Each structure stands twice: as C-alpha cells, then as structure tokens.
Amino acid sequence: MRVFGPLGVPEVILIFVVALLLFGPRKMPQIGRSLGRAIGEFRRASNEFKRTIEDEVAADEIRSVERELKEIRTAGTDVVKAVESPSSESEPPDGGQGSP
User: Fold this and answer.
1) DSSP per-residue letters across the chain
2) Fewest C-beta in 10 Å: which of 10, 60, 67, 100?
3) pLDDT of 31-49, one tens digit each?
C-alpha cells in the first residue's frame, strides 16, 4: 500500500525512525511544523505558477481572436468600399450615351 506517492508504509516508518534518531523527540514537532510550512508554501507557489501560465494562455487566445476580428473588419470594410464606389463596369461601354 502506497501512502506518500512512491513511498509505502515501511519506507515512511524507516524515515520517521531515522529522523527521530538524528534529531531527538524534542525537535520532532518543530521539524514537523517547519516541514509542513515548507510543503504548504511550495504548493501555494506551484498553484500561483499554474494560474499565471493559464492566464497567459487565455491572454494569447484573446489576442488571437482580436487579431482575427480585426482582419474580418478590414475585409468587411473593403467589401463595403467596393460596393459603394462607382466602378467602370457599371457604366455602359459607349461612354454612357445611347446608340444612334
């Protein structure tokens, strides 16, 4: 049975016993608090980094959509100008005068 990621129960017990021998029973609560704070800070930092990346991806998507919208507006403006401007095709080939 895995308790902490790749560590199982025997590995966690071994780590606890080694830490107890190295630091003693009086320092273990302080070390536990410090370790807990460090893990919490690491999680907050990683979540903040993740949010920053997600925000940048969303901003890139917004910029891409804005670029496409600008291209569509430009194309629409060109079409409107082409429709509104008089063209040589609308005039009769004989200069606008009727035939004799």
Assistant:
1) -EEETTEEHHHHHHHHHHHHHHH-TTTHHHHHHHHHHHHHHHHHHHHHHHHHHHHHHHHHHHHHHHHHHHHHHHHHHHHHHHHHS--GGGS-TTTTPPP-
2) 100
3) 889 989 999 999 999 999 9
